[in-house]
Design a protein that fits this description.
Blueprint: E1 34-36, E2 43-45, H1 47-70, H2 75-81, E3 100-107, E4 115-123, E5 131-138, E6 144-154, E7 159-165, E8 178-185, E9 188-193, E10 202-207
Length: about 210
Amino acid sequence: RHATGTSAPHPPTEPGNGGGSAPGRLSLSVSAASTPGTGGRGRRVSCTVALAVAGALAAVTVGSAFVFDLLPGSSGDAGADQGPSGGQPEPGTVPAAYVGTWEGQASSRESITIPLGTFRVTLKEARVGERVGTLRHTDIFGGTCDDVLTLKEVTAKRIVTTSVGAPTNRDVCNQARHTVLLTPVGDDLVYESDSKDSGRPEARMSKIK
């Protein structure tokens, strides 16, 4: 709304040089008429000035936002830097380096070291809670026992599984549920079981396929 008063409005600004504004240039005219306030106190600025000030503030705000958006570390810049994980496994899944068949000689860790025969572990891709592989234990007499491994946890250093005897095992096999740690060491994979009934076996296995 325009302020009321006796001052006459300024005439429109004439184009310079008699030929109008040069192409591509914007010509802006601001009228700063003002009138005395009620009771002679203060002065009231015309609507034209108020609009001009508001427009200038808006231009500064937009320009600042544009500049800050281009600065390194700004929110727009940060989003562009975050690309795909580059082949990193999803949380709770088995890294590809574990997948395959591993084999090595096992021994007991209870009291004295006793040879236990050959351990063969076969691992596949799986998520936490899914079946991740099997263990076949061939003892020094040629007898076999099979365990089913279920993925329990994936950490930066190892995978943790829950192991239980397969239903098809012989009566001499340990069927009790226990925890097995599988830890990469160089090019090998170390198997560690917490089963006291089985002698808390450990095996350092090499990848055979």
